[in-house]
């Protein structure tokens, strides 16, 4: 039987022991062996801390985000084989989707967050700058840097893919290398996904390692700077947390343990209401999804005492209709437990529950294309705790399978009290349409819950469900649930980052943080900052504007245009007892006037105003005052751009408005979208002519078989097609891919060197030469390019067919020609 290899120190290594046999949870057949015996864990941790840390921490947050996206896309293309393995763990297609594509989705989510919200630097400035001296020469702020260590991630058996990717999404984005230790059960699926992550070549060396089997003494080698993330039982987690190596070295430890999560049916949710039906459906789903093997599953069903019988009957009927069996069958709605060992453990816990509570539903279902002897199948089991404030077994013992307990309550006070008797839960849900009941119950139970999920008719269609942790929200809970926090958007990164206070002068803080600080040196030049591309803008680039004297007419006109007739702007007789001496200019007029002073009227790389932050008005501006503006580049944020948008970044500009006495009257931060410099040549005939001067009959291509004249005539033919001479009658790209291809015209990625024209046979020559020599071809090409410019000025709405990109308008043709010309000019070494 094949042994699963471990990925340690950059190599695939087999264990040297007998290992643990891993079985198909449906058929009982052996699938693989996991073995970690003989592995050098000390070397593995050292490799992560040195090679892995150096490679990951030197990348920027933005680049790490791009890395996550590339990995997720690579895995998504190979998902079919993961599903085939997932069925062997007992998971249905729906269960597998949550695990596999839910894991990829977490990578995509964190990639998007990084590219929208994180800096293009290896560190992250956290919070605002604090002025800690009277004159502003001494400032303070905080930066976050990757913790200098390795993260050991110990995952549970129920989610072999999502469990790994959920933790890696934050550790990799934070810049911390990781060692993944999945549960042996289902680790053959983790191993398959991990192999592809390595084979993709996207992750830097040392970023991730994999230990498939028992953890051995790996935690003996942790040290200060390392971290441990554990998902599993609370008992095991507490033992690991108290290990001398962990506790004694101040190793960061995050625990996400199983918990006795509850769902509360509102007093208003009687049979016949949408909420009652939603409740039954939600509880059934949470009992049967992954065969109840979810740390977020509903274990305690808290219902109004007068509805106990109704819920029992409705839930029993719903469970009766849930077909159990082989996950490969289309009929199956619930698969098996992950293995016989887990089955025996659930049976043991069920027997403990029986000692104090009554088993009221134990549907012995017939299995679909499977049998109970070979597979780890278990029918759903429903208990009744008729006295939940006296019988504590339901609040203490968790059977980690399709097992839940029904219990009654009288009022919102009791519902919240029962919810909290779980002693700390990952999630509690409330299903009700009574907002008062929801509000009272939720804040009373919140202290013992990591997440509260409210479901009713208003959000049911778009709800993600009680049991689904989301990347943008925290996953974790207090007390029994482990006291840990995972994901939660960017908050999930903080666990892996060291927060450091930085103090110094404005210039020092600007140098360290790469963010302009008020009081730091400004850099003035003749070139207007708005005429610079994103790459050219430097932090501290500044502009001092001319002055503008505010008049009474300005104030009156702005009142009329804006409809802002607040008395301080319009009624000089009403100012007694106010802070104003006379009618005052509107704050937004000052900001608008400032923009009028600092903007550049000439078209340039600035695409649009993107937003406004932290606008404050410090002193009134009256008619007769003269304002001057200082505009300074404060911060640059790289930005991922999709679709038909110009590649760009966000530049934050500090706007300081001063009056004639040099007093600051207004400070704001404006955000602009600034285009990135295109790597493609401009369609300028003079520039093109200079480039072509370097092309002769003897110029050899760097790739391909074209001659110089063939290349020029090929480009001219492309321009003629864009004029409809001749009109291409067909696009060879399939309709379903056309939008994606057209979108690609807008990005800054170059055309691939080996791209074959889809409309040419392999042995077909490009075109029959029509010009007598290269010089004649060059001149004809330049003449045609002039015609192109004139044609689209006269026919701005014209569209013509392209063989690859379909019907293109003026803008698209220009983008296509820029890429195409650059591609072939580079082919011949002209640029």
Question: How would you sum up this structure, described in words?
Answer:
With 831 residues, the protein is α/β, with parallel strands linked by helices. The chain has 4 domains: 41-123 and 147-255, Aldehyde Dehydrogenase, Chain A, domain 1 (3-Layer(aba) Sandwich), CATH 3.40.605.10; 262-465, Aldehyde Dehydrogenase, Chain A, domain 2 (3-Layer(aba) Sandwich), CATH 3.40.309; 522-675, Hotdog Thioesterase (Thiol Ester Dehydrase, Chain A, Roll), CATH 3.10.129.10; 685-828, no CATH class. The chain contains 23 helices and 32 strands. The strands form 9 sheets. A 7-stranded mixed beta sheet has the order 15-17-18-13-12-19-20, with helices on both faces. Strands 24, 25, 26, 27, 28, 29 and 30 form a 7-stranded mixed beta sheet that branches. It has a 5-stranded parallel beta sheet with strand order 9-8-7-10-11, with helices on both faces. The radius of gyration is 33 Å and the shape is globular. Mean pLDDT is 92; it is low at 761-765.
